[in-house]
């Protein structure tokens, strides 16, 4: 990054713009995320195991493409084109959900949305790293996740407003209207990308050369730990199903979800900044511990205050684990392969998120949600212990 590049809120202009893009897209996504569990079960008549599996497949789908498109963006050094294409595909898919009639066409469109995410995420994260000051990647990724999650706070609140505004019409029609309206913020973000975001990787030679960081045993161990932690990464849908199991309405469960996103948004930036001096490896280790506490709180929550504590811990956990590993991988990667290395992290994570939600869905259907969350806690404790063997 050029030293004289304009900064805003302590980060480069490019990082700030990518934060705006993520804010708009996450607002778009989170307008529909809270209603999707109810839509699957009430409108599309999907059962517990199928619903859990579908939500897990959706979460996992995008990550399968991230290392491939990270590598391609390394080769062409044109991150912006991949960022735009990925966001455009997702925007179209979200709006088209209004036309779904069965769980399989719902899954197909969500898969298209997630493929869009798979196309854009590693190139975007590489662009953030390339637009950051040396030694300040935690700050940049923290700011980006903060903006992304503020969109996730705004989205459910907009959803609540729309539900109240449209409550006089049949619920199925209401859901479809919300799906359609969710495409608007995404469309606006596409203009921001076209007009203002700049590629920053042109100074690095196009040719991929040297020994890849992926051959480093410490990095391989870290990715193995990420895989185990991902097995304990249950879909957000399970937290909302827990709230509804305790007797809260769909609107009230959306409010809980908005609280989680608010905690996430408020935590991501300061935790990212602090990780630059505290140590990213130690912060990630703490994150797994917080994840275990959150899962146990969800497992045994029987009252309002325990449920609130669970959502707060969940927000802090996701703020750490969605922010710091990206910065950690960016620091480890050589300049000519940042997209590839960050993409590898996302891909490993995504591959293991799918069985995590399938297992959680099976435990829910066969026993109870408490078993689903207890399994998640066990996986995160295991990951926390194994992180002590990873070098800083």
UniProtKB/TrEMBL annotation:
InterPro entries: MFS, MFS_dom, MFS_trans_sf. One of its GO terms (molecular function) is transmembrane transporter activity. The keyword Transmembrane applies. The keyword Ribosomal protein does not apply. Residues 14-392 form the Major facilitator superfamily (MFS) profile domain. The chain crosses the membrane at residues 7-24, 49-69, 81-104, 174-197, 218-236, 248-271, 283-301, 307-324, 344-364, 370-390. Pfam families: MFS_1. This is MFS transporter. It comes from Thermococcus thioreducens.
């Amino acid at each position: 990054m050029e030293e004289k590049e304009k900064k805003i809120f302590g980060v480069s202009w490019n990082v700030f713009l990518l934060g705006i893009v993520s804010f708009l897209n996450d607002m778009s996504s989170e307008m529909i995320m809270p209603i999707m569990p109810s839509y699957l079960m009430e409108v599309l008549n999907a059962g517990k195991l199928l619903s859990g599996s579908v939500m897990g497949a959706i979460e996992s789908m995008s990550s399968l493409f991230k290392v491939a498109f990270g590598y391609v963006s390394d080769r062409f050094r044109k991150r912006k084109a991949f960022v735009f294409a990925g966001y455009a595909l997702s925007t179209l898919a979200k709006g088209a959900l209004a036309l779904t009639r069965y769980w399989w066409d719902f899954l197909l469109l969500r898969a298209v949305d997630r493929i869009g995410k798979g196309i854009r995420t590693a190139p975007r994260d590489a662009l953030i790293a390339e637009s950051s000051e040396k030694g300040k990647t935690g700050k940049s990724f923290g700011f980006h996740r903060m903006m992304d999650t503020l969109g996730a706070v705004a989205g459910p609140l907009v959803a609540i407003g729309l539900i109240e505004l449209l409550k006089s019409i049949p619920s199925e029609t209401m859901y479809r209207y919300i799906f359609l309206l969710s495409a608007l913020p995404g469309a606006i973000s596409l203009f921001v990308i076209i007009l203002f975001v700049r590629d920053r990787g042109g100074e690095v030679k196009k040719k991929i050369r040297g020994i890849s960081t992926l051959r480093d045993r410490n990095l391989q161990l870290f990715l193995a730990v990420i895989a185990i932690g991902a097995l304990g990464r249950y879909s957000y849908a399970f937290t909302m199903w827990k709230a509804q199991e305790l007797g809260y309405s769909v609107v009230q469960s959306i409010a809980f979800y908005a609280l989680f996103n608010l905690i996430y948004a408020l935590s991501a930036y300061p935790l990212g900044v602090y990780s630059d001096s505290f140590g990213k490896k130690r912060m990630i280790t703490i994150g797994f511990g917080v994840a275990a506490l959150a899962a146990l709180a969800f497992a045994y929550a029987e009252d309002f205050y325990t449920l609130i504590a669970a959502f707060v811990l969940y927000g802090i956990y996701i703020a750490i684990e969605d922010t710091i590993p990206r910065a950690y991988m960016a620091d480890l990667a050589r300049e000519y392969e940042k997209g590839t290395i960050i993409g590898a992290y996302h891909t490993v994570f995504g591959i293991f998120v799918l069985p995590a939600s399938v297992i959680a869905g099976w435990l829910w259907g066969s026993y109870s949600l408490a078993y689903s969350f207890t399994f998640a806690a066990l996986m995160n404790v295991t990951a926390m212990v194994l992180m002590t063997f990873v070098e800083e």
